[in-house]
Amino acid sequence: MVSTLSKCLTLTYSDACVSQSALATDSAAATLTLSLHLRRCFSDYSAVRLSNGSFGDCAKHDPEVNEDTEKNYAELLTEELKQREAASMEKHKRVDTGLLEAKKITSSYQKEADKCNSGMETCEEAREKSEKALVEQKKLTSMWELRARQKGWKEGATKSSVKSKSSVQAS
Description:
By secondary structure, this protein is mostly helical. It folds into 2 domains: 2-86, no CATH class; 87-151. Helices cover 86% and strands 0% of the residues. The chain has 6 helices and no strands. It is rod-shaped, with a radius of gyration of 49 Å. The N and C termini lie far apart (135 Å). The model is unreliable at 1-27 and 44-52 (pLDDT under 50). InterPro entries: DUF1068 (IPR010471). It holds the Pfam family DUF1068. Residues 150-171 are annotated as: Disordered.
């Protein structure tokens, strides 16, 4: 409490007025900070009675300074609200842009997935057709193999051995 009070006491009324007018031209935020600092000092320690003349002058309510301070304070708050609103709108715009981009990418991936699924269905249909054709071909092969065996064909018999057997039978 003493250190905060001593900080407030080092700021005299004339210093505060000079600083405030200089800061008003430089930065509105600095003026708000100084104004809030002075208000905090006055409100926290208004009950404390000190013999320091400069602090007593500082604590007096000067209507011109209070009016200017109130106007500056209101203007600064209005400006800060406008800046926050602008920042919020900018952030909202960036988020909307990002969301739109994400939707576009999602749509692109969905189209690719649909193409892939279509290709898989086509491939599956072709596999099923070839599987049916293979089963039919095996049946046909079995039927021809059965007929060949009925006519004397033996597995592993070659053309030359068949010729030699037929020449043996002919002799």
